[in-house]
Amino acid sequence: MTDTRRRVKVYTLNEDRQWDDRGTGHVSSGYVERLKGMSLLVRAESDGSLLLESKINPNTAYQKQQDTLIVWSEAENYDLALSFQEKAGCDEIWEKICQVQGKDPSVDITQDLVDESEEERFDDMSSPGLELPSCELSRLEEIAELVASSLPSPLRREKLALALENEGYIKKLLELFHVCEDLENIEGLHHLYEIIKGIFLLNRTALFEVMFSEECIMDVIGCLEYDPALSQPRKHREFLTKTAKFKEVIPISDPELKQKIHQTYRVQYIQDMVLPTPSVFEENMLSTLHSFIFFNKVEIVGMLQEDEKFLTDLFAQLTDEATDEEKRQELVNFLKEFCAFSQTLQPQNRDAFFKTLSNMGILPALEVILGMDDTQVRSAATDIFSYLVEYNPSMVREFVMQEAQQNDDDILLINLIIEHMICDTDPELGGAVQLMGLLRTLVDPENMLATANKTEKTEFLGFFYKHCMHVLTAPLLANTTEDKPSKDDFQTAQLLALVLELLTFCVEHHTYHIKNYIINKDILRRVLVLMASKHAFLALCALRFKRKIIGLKDEFYNRYIMKSFLFEPVVKAFLNNGSRYNLMNSAIIEMFEFIRVEDIKSLTAHVIENYWKALEDVDYVQTFKGLKLRFEQQRERQDNPKLDSMRSILRNHRYRRDARTLEDEEEMWFNTDEDDMEDGEAVVSPSDKTKNDDDIMDPISKFMERKKLKESEEKEVLLKTNLSGRQSPSFKLSLSSGTKTSLTSQSPATNLPGSPGSPGSPGSPGSPGSVPKSTSQTAAITTKGGLVGLVDYPDDDEDDDEDEDKDDALPLAKKAKFES
Questions:
Q1: pLDDT for 788
Q2: CB atoms < 10 A from the CB of 549, how many?
Q3: 72 forms bridges with which residues in the sheet?
């Protein structure tokens, strides 16, 4: 289909009240069986796919705007627009819509936008069309009241708008405005302000086209100067005619384009500066004004983009050394404004826009501009660069990598950006903050592309660390040659904080590139010099950098930290901070707590071996004592690896042992009747009779050793660290010589063999492998060696200790019985 009359763009209104471009295609109307009615169909011109299929609903309000737009709402929050290439096509489809709805095609809106009560609608339908009072000075108050009373009712608004259109009423009102100004009739001027403001709220494109025409717009602005709420009128017209000058940096040959630029600037000024901020109830009444500006901007960008001679001249003059500074500043400001306008474009259109600028050589041009001394020109160039980076960082990365093959590091675009950041003269470093954000976007691997042939991340980061990182870290290295920062003024501290923020980002996202750089250049040691800064925010930035490194739990980093003793500046800062409860104190403690919780063994040992004396008196948190405990446990495991392995074996069995997993010999012991054990003689399986006494005692010795170790550890926790609320176990363990084993309980009452409370007694209620819970429960069995009491625990012991002793007590008693 090649009929340009039917060529349209489909737009939908998003949540931010901005129009999203859904594609370009050709529109037609026809009966759709599925929708059971006449419908609008738009098929994409690229592949013929269906962009829009919308039934022409008899009750939907369609609006025609600016001769080439049809706008309507499909649902409560779903607005659609068709933007036609030609007016004839718009008129043709408008006639189809009006035909389905039974409306006159001369109207610009087919339905009321808001439902009214039936009673109000009946009253309005029965009344004739709205009659406007004659346009005279004496009747201005009456006209103002009529406009104000019509605004709440959609139907009356519609009638008022039609009356204003048909009678050319707006031009008559503007003639009265001149009369009132000449006569200095302030009351009349106040009425005109209310009338013109009310006409804006009618939200009608046809009225806007009259008001924003070349002959009327300045008078409309004049009416809006006389706000009754102000003691003195505003001087908007004076600003627009004398202060705001239209600068044609490159001659625009198209008069229509020039007029459109003037109109858009003035309408934007009315919206932003002249009209009062709309209330919640009035906000939607200005939606047509938003749309008017939006589509004007789209049109301007499109017309300029298509004018190749204009853009060619623009970039030629920008990069020409003969261009004087004032002219160059105007050219850069124009280009900045041009890019700002492009933000209203939809993604497809924006793609085409930036592709055009790229082909014209915008990046080399920016490089030239950024190398100039004029700060205003550089600032504008930075804004343009930010538009490019936000739109397509890959395009910028590709340019700087190609450029590196031809130029020295000093004149690379990305190094120019870093230098401007470092040399920002603004005390608040506003420009440096903006540039740091752009650098962060450029080095962010999340927006880097990966293809089958190449990986942008590998290539660009390799380039960045080779050619640019030394420029970024130069102020940091220059300021940290001593034990304290050589310059510690506020502006330097702010700059170094920005650099550290970017380096911290790199640690998190760049893995081996930044790791090699930090270790080879000893960057962390230099950064920690800043812990001595008088500016707390900078010291915290340095600490955050180190915390990010420790958080990676990378042994390469850990070895580097230990070899260079890089906890020393942190410990010094902690001690210098004293007992003050502030962010520095909390952040340092959190870092050590992380090492303890994550059990980073190498750092735990390093901290305790080198800094324990300085930290042992810190008792308002248990972090450092907890680290010491970790260290001692770790050292014990290293000294006695067999014991450690035995612990792990017992720990593993502890969760698996129950009645079903007992060994055969245990089952034999539990199943033996009392009658079988005459004179305390134990029943032993034939295989066990062959075992010698040493073999039997060996596991008992290991078990007792484990128990002693456990007791000593728990006592240490109680007495030294107070880390746990666990009480000291109320039992003593002693291993007698030779073949005797005795466990004596501190409990005053001991159950005798065979008593009902003794789970070890054959025939007692207790089930094998479990000990019933009671306040004081002790088990005992009679052997040839004497009385052996099984261990009991107080009620407040932890569950895991309870379980372990339930599991371990029975095998011990059994083995003691075997031995005897």
A1: 41
A2: 24
A3: 62, 80
